Each structure stands twice: as structure tokens, then as C-alpha cells.
From TrEMBL:
Coiled coil: none annotated. Residues 1-18, 29-38 have a biased composition (Polar residues). This is Negative regulator of flagellin synthesis. Residues 43-93 form the Anti-sigma-28 factor FlgM C-terminal domain. It comes from Reinekea forsetii. SUPFAM superfamilies: Anti-sigma factor FlgM (SSF101498). Residues 1-43 are annotated as: Disordered. Keywords: Bacterial flagellum biogenesis, Cell projection, Cilium, Flagellum, Repressor, Transcription, Transcription regulation. The lineage of its organism: Bacteria, Pseudomonadati, Pseudomonadota, Gammaproteobacteria, Oceanospirillales.
Amino acid sequence: MPINVNGPSTNALGTNKPQKNDAAEQATVAKSGNGTNHASREDVVELSDRGRVLEAVVSKVHQMPDTDQAKIDRIRSAITNGEYKIDYDKLAAAFSRFEAGL
């Protein structure tokens, strides 16, 4: 959900008041470092290296299919042909790991 940082703000009492954006006030705030800095069209957000890597990973994940259709087809074919073998020890270990995580 986008946030309008340049729109009207609500003060602590919940009333909307127009903000003063005159150049003298902004220059005073910038020089003194006091008060709240107002957002401008020149504000820039830069992601850290970690943020860029995470963004790339998320993008790749969203491009991946939800299922591996080739694997599904191989298993389906093996079941149909009676060739699908179940490793009961491996299955039991997987159940045990799952239950331990609950």
C-alpha cells in the first residue's frame, strides 16, 4: 500500500492542518538540524547490498513455477507402472522431523 509522504499530515489531536513549506523555514531546519525534515521529490531510497540480493532472490522465486511438473509426471508414471518404491525408513524419518518441528 503506497504512502503519500507529501500529503496532509495528522497531528497528535487527529486534526488535519496544512503544513507550512516556505523556503525560509526549510532552510532554518536544514541549518539547525532541529525539527522534522519534510519529504521532497528529491528524496532517494537506496538499498543495501543485502537488500539488492534479497530483491533479486524474491524476483527469481516469483518467476519459478509452483510445481515441478516433470517430477510429478515421472512419479505418476512410476505409480501407474507399478515401479514406484517407497523407502519406509526415509518416510518415517521425514514424519519424525515434521512432528519435532510442531
